[in-house]
Amino acid sequence: MTKKSTRRDFLRGKAAAEAAGAAVDRLLPELGDESVDRQTLVISRPAMAARFEICVDATDAAAIEAAWEALELVGEYESRWSYFRPESELSAINSAADSEPVAIRGDLFELLQRSRLLYEETEGAFDLTATPLWELWGFARREGRVPDEAALADALRLVGMDRVELDASSSAVFFRTPGVRLNLGAIGKGYVVDRCAERLVAEGVSSFLLSGGLSSMVAKGRPPGGASDGWTVGIRNPLRPDRRLARLVLRDRALATSGSYIQSFRFEGKRFGHIIDPRTGWPAEHMLSTTVLAPSAETADALSTAFYVMGVERAVEFCRNRPELGAVLIVPSRTRGGWSVHRVGIADDQWLQEPE
Predict the structure, then answer these.
(1) Which residues pair with 329 in a beta bridge?
(2) Are the C-beta atoms of 62 and 203 separated by less than 8 Å?
(3) pTM (2 d.p.)
(4) Nearest Cα residue to 251 out of 213, 188, 206, 214
(5) Over the chain (356 residues), what is each successive 10-residue block's mean pLDDT?
(6) What does DSSP assign to residue 216?
(7) Sheet of 172-175: strands edge to edge?
């Protein structure tokens, strides 16, 4: 029996209904019950240290098959671009590009070009070379520690996309400084979500919600049944991650969220999160979480990290100069354990405040 026929058999009749029901029960705390019901099937697979999920109409066999096919792309990109796999294209760059130019495939080269542009537009707040800082602070092994000044200065010498030379004539990468490394962790998941969404649209699927973990997603069309103008997705309370702070109605748009509530540690009474400001080498501390709405998950993914580093004023200014963007910025307040919410580029009818 082929893989495709096995999938079709599993998703017929009672099996489809039971699978949809189980997936919906698990997903409701994140997405809200307006979008997902027993007309919706959630298909998923683990990859890239997350779970990729696609919500489609449970009665649409073509959409279900297309969702399975789209998720197969995730594994392909993880094999090619993982920072942690020694056989990946990214590892090949990191191991050799400080001694000679390394020619790479066009899609990766174009992604690096766009990442360079974002680095410049955000004045260095978004930076694919910041991994030495993340490792120095102990977040790579989930063993947080405060580094000494000398070690921090050494790590900062390896950080900055201006140390990466991109030769468009040969699609080659060269590191001007030995020891520089690239890591796509702040943009790669969004890129892959976009590619999966493109595959679904190419197969004629006009309604779906596609997510890469809890941080990146794309919504197309309306949920099955058409009761809502879009898919309802939740924004976590950054101080109480088991609860939602609000919900957004998302349609034909991408969303990404960054926050340090999952990876952080305390030292001498101060909390340090895993999102590092690559310009200073210290964890960013002026945000609790940032959610960005954008035309693509790639852009939303990158800017959610950049805005976390940039702070409220610069993030709001950035959005106001780019009307295609929206953001929800949650910052700590002076009240102990409190927060305030800043919204920009998000209409009132998209915003559903949770009760206190």
Answers:
(1) 290, 342
(2) yes
(3) 0.87
(4) 206
(5) 40 38 36 54 90 94 96 95 95 97 97 98 98 89 87 97 98 97 96 98 97 91 84 87 87 92 67 88 92 98 97 96 95 76 91 73
(6) E
(7) 102-103, 172-175, 164-167
